[in-house]
Amino acid sequence: MLKKMLIHGLIAATVIGGAAAVYASGRGGGDEMGPTVRTDTRTGYITDRAGYAGGKHAYREAKDHDREHDRKYDRYDRDKDHGRKHRDRDDD
Amino acid sequence: MTPKRQQALLLFWHAWLGGSYLVAYLTADEDTYGMHLFAGYAVLAAIVVRILVGLAASDSRLLKLPRPHLGAWRDWFGGGKGRHPFFAWFAAALLVVVGAAAATGALSDSLMTWLEDPHEVVSEVSLWIVFGHIAFVTFMYGGRKFIDKHVRQAVAKLAGRVPFTHA
Questions:
Q1: Can you tell me the distance from the alpha carbon of B37 to that of B30, in angstroms, rounded to the nearest whole number?
Q2: Distance (Å, rounded) from C-alpha B166 to C-alpha B68?
Q3: What are the chain A neighbours of B138 within 8 Å (beta carbons)?
Q4: Among A21, A67, B129, B135, which is 20 to 30 Å from B14 by CA?
Q5: pTM (2 decimals)?
Q6: How far is CA A60 from the centre of its chain?
Q7: For B39, which of A8, A20, A59 is closest by C-beta distance?
Q8: Does A1 contact chain B (CB < 8 Å)?
Q9: A37-39 and A46-48 beta bridge pairing
């Protein structure tokens, strides 16, 4: 009984792991995200998530970085010079 | 539904939960975040389905939700009646803790990112409860005989009744 349950669990893990891998690769994976461009309607910036390929930068860090970036530069409020300066993604 | 079908359903569900949990734990890293997310939602779905089925089939011996109670200890240690109480306690603990781990993970991904650290803590705790569950079930379904046999042999050898033999 225990052996049967162990085998069932491993089979399930294989199936779910495979499905998860397909989902992740379709989504863009962790560190292999393709360039995704979006327009920030508040500031008019066009931002993208490219530049995070490789290394430890992954989806979550990209999301957090965007949030922090928006927070930091929101107060400049459509300053054209500032917008031009920061239009390209900062790789910091 | 016949008891055999209910047991098959329960085994299927157990494999679904166990397999998803294993994948989720092994992919809990930034580099495999997408896989971790998928597996985590599979765990959450398994927990939700179990609770719904348990509530719907509350009169089924196999499918009803575990209801641990202190009286079961008295019955077990008093006269050896019924099932070992740890079965129900472990089942309930796992549903709660694994469910909490999955729920905090889902919330931290979407609405409350501050739940990331609590999610990690709850997940680590759930792993130890899983280990305890595996150890207990292994002991109850064969481990007892194995340990009994080998402990008796070791004690007999130490007492000098059986000579040591080189394997």
A1: 11
A2: 48
A3: 2
A4: A21
A5: 0.68
A6: 5
A7: A20
A8: yes
A9: antiparallel
Confidence (pLDDT) at A85: 60
Alpha carbon B140 to chain centroid, angstroms: 14
For chain B, 167 residues long, give each residue's pLDDT as a single digit of tens. 888 999 999 999 999 999 999 999 999 988 999 999 999 999 999 999 999 999 998 888 888 888 887 777 777 777 766 778 888 889 999 999 999 999 999 999 888 899 999 999 999 999 999 999 999 998 888 777 777 778 888 888 888 765 556 55
Q: How many residues does chain B have?
A: 167
Which token pair is A78?
């459509």
- How far is Cα B113 from Cα B123, in angstroms, rounded to an integer? 16
pLDDT value for B19 = 95
How distant, in Å, are the alpha carbons of B127, B143, B145, B154 from that of B150? 29, 11, 9, 6
Given an 8 Å threshold on Cβ–Cβ distance, is A13 in contact with B22?
yes
Q: Do B137 and A27 touch (CB under 8 A)?
A: no
DSSP string, B29-90: SGGGHHHHHHHHHHHHHHHHHHHHHHHHTTT-TTTSPP---THHHHHHHHH--SS-HHHHHH
Q: How many CB atoms lie within 10 A of CB A11?
A: 12
Quote the ipTM score. Answer: 0.76
CA angle B58, A10, B1 (to 5 degrees): 25
Count of other CB atoms within 10 angstroms of residue A9: 20
C-alpha to C-alpha distance for B68 and B24, rounded to whole angstroms: 28
